[in-house]
Amino acid sequence: MNTAISTAAPASQQLTSALLYLDGVSVSFDGFKAIRGLSLTIEPGEMRAIIGPNGAGKTTMMDIITGKTRPDTGTVLFAGSIDLTKLDEAAIANLGIGRKFQKPTVFDFHSIEDNILLALKANRSVGRTLFWKTANADARRIDEILGIIKLGDARERLAGSLSHGQKQWLEIGMLLAQDPKLLLVDEPAAGMTDGETAETAVLLKEIARDHSVIVVEHDMGFIRELGVKVTVLHEGSVLAEGPLDLVSANERVVEVYLGR
Amino acid sequence: MIARFLLQNMDRRGAVFLALVAAIMLLVPLSNLLLPPSSVFHVPTSAMSLWGKYLCFALLAISLDLVWGYCGILSLGHGAFFALGGYAMGMYLMRQIGSRGVYGNPILPDFMVFLNWKELPWYWYGFDSFLFAMLMVLLVPGLLAFVFGWFAFRSRVTGVYLSIITQALTYALLLAFFRNDMGFGGNNGLTDFKDILGFSVQAQTTRAALFAITCLMLMAGFLIARGIVVSKLGKVVIAIRDAESRTRFLGYRVDRFKLFVFTVSACMAGVAGALYVPQVGIINPSEFAPANSIETVIWVAIGGRGTLVGAALGAVVVNYAKTIFTSGFMAPYWLFALGGLFVFVTLFMPKGILGAVQGWSAGRGRRGREPAATAPAAAE
Ligand SMILES: Nc1ncnc2c1ncn2[C@@H]1O[C@H](COP(=O)(O)OP(=O)(O)O)[C@@H](O)[C@H]1O
Ligand SMILES: [Mg+2]
Asked: Would you say the ipTM is above 0.85?
């Protein structure tokens, strides 16, 4: 079997060093091109901010990466060789891609603690889940995450009773529990007070130390706070890319987005 | 490990339910067998069998609650699994008649002789063995549910569409079992049973034993269903009910989890059907009637969806009411009464009878710790 390694199929070869590689991706809904020729590369360990006006295709891009939407054309590779367009949501999640939704989606009828437990990295098979017993290490990790998202005191409350901002944090906590390689965070600061927004930026920077992160956000202050490379999406493709100051000085960007 | 699984996080409600069923299991048969008919505490055999029937419905209701209350799969075809379990038991009971049938054929049931059949169809083989028949009680509904669920859940059929195809499933089986050439007794079904495991099905002692076994199976069914819903798998299943696609993005294969609870539930419904048949003495295609499956949904809704205990309670209460109602001059209005009750409970007791009772006894202060006691009405 050892000799097989040298003759490994091309599919398993590293095609790119990028953690996430999108090239020429297009998708249309009933003839409307939501994404057109989108190309984007995220390096391992990188945090990237994505901005763009409403309807630019930011959420749709995340749908494509996480298997919710199949692109019509284009390449989507994870970890250099895994074709994400061939996999379904669960398989992609198990590869290590976690997602926080634009509209915070938590399990309203579960306690906060159970929301984290469900997200906690573990074998997801039916049998293992049926006979699951929370080990001490798992319990500690849950405590730790509850501490990070500042919901430790509310752990037994139903998630449905949380405020919008708290739900956002719970969802970030669930992402942490999944311990993915790549986090897709869709508008984490939406509906937050200025104070909460600032705290969220700190939290995300903390997370970005040992994870790759893509953050979609409208709040310019928030993006500035993150201080990372910015990609501007417009009508389904990349309009500009670079440091925030450079991008916001770009005439086209000002025209379509910042200057509206 | 099994005991730990079944008894993990036993709450007071579950314990009360188990104690109640255990008490009924002992007291009813004992009073029937030991007390003289003149005693006020004597339970007549007919009443015992009637209550045995209610308890079979309670088990059916628990099985439905497992998929509907916890996983959001509104099956309008659970009567089919119940009926298939019943037919498997009926086939065993038919084979036990032997040469005591009207035509005296040692192998063929009367209806086959009547149809001029010369040989036992292959799918009747083995049903002379009790063990084999009991295996089929689990396997036939389980396998049907598995195959059906495999296709339905993988293609992500949900909500109303799923409900409609489950209804179509039971309707198709109704039509099939009506046909004489299917070999299940057609319109008349299977009846005139004589023995079960060598004991006369009519004997008072047999009836008492059947009643006790029904109680035992109800407890077992409850323990299994409860074990499932309080496990982490149960939490996943509730998550699927409330936010299916979110669960997928966490890496759970939703179709497999649905398939698991659906299949377990179908097996449980099959057992309920198998216990029902010797106690009522007949199984015919009307058990597949779509209306039966819908009634089961109503029992669960009335008793309290997503509570298991409530489902059992609803089945007993509604069927007891039905017996009272349909034995008097009001009989023609039963369906209106049932419909009215359903509307009343939906409007004024959204958590069913159990929810209302618990609400009154616990006051308003305590919010439910039961994960599913608060199943959202809008989950469908
Ligand atoms: N499933 C869908 N069906 C039809 N149109 C869609 C669908 N998803 C997104 N769109 C359209 O695609 C465009 C991009 O949407 P979206 O990705 O949500 O934008 P953003 O997140 O950047 O605000 C919008 O015009 C939206 O209406
Ligand atoms: Mg969006």
From this structure: yes
Residue of A nearest to B240 (CA): A107
DSSP annotation of B42: P
B251 touches chain A (CB under 8 A): yes
Could you read off the pLDDT of B146-203 as tens digits, one per residue? 999 999 999 999 999 999 999 999 999 999 999 999 999 999 999 999 999 999 999 9
The answer to whether residue B380 sits within a structural domain is: no
CB B174 within 8 A of CB B83: no
Gap between the Cα atoms of A76 and A85, Å rounded: 6
- Mean pLDDT across A144-172: 93
Number of domains in chain B: 1
| Domain CATH number, residue B7 | 1.10.3470
Whether residue B375 is contained in a domain is answered as: no
User: Where does residue B149 fall: left (phi above 0), alpha (psi -120 to 50 degrees), or beta otherwise?
Assistant: alpha
* Residue B1: pLDDT over 80: no
**Preferred mutation among B228, B247, B249 to probe A, highest tally of A CBs within 10 A:** B249
Which chain A residues touch B1 with a CB distance below 8 Å?
A: 131
Q: Which domain holds residue B353?
A: 2-370
Partner B contacted by A139 (CB < 8 A): no
Q: Span A86-97, mean pLDDT?
A: 96
Ligand 1 nearest atom to the CA of residue A57, by list position: 17
Q: Which residue of A has its CA nearest to B254?
A: A90
Contact: A107, B367; criterion CB under 8 Å:
no
**pTM for the whole structure:** 0.92
Hey, which CATH number is domain A20-258, 3.30.70.3040, 3.40.50.300, 3.30.43.10, 2.40.50.40? Answer: 3.40.50.300
Residue B376 falls within a domain, yes or no?
Answer: no
Name the E strands within chain A. 20-29, 32-42, 47-51, 73-78, 82-83, 97-100, 182-186, 212-216, 229-234, 237-242
**Tens of pLDDT, residues B49-81:** 999 999 999 999 999 999 999 999 999 999 999
Give me ligand 2 centre to Cα A171, in Å.
16
Q: What residues are paired with A51 via a beta bridge?
A: A232
pLDDT given at position A5: 42
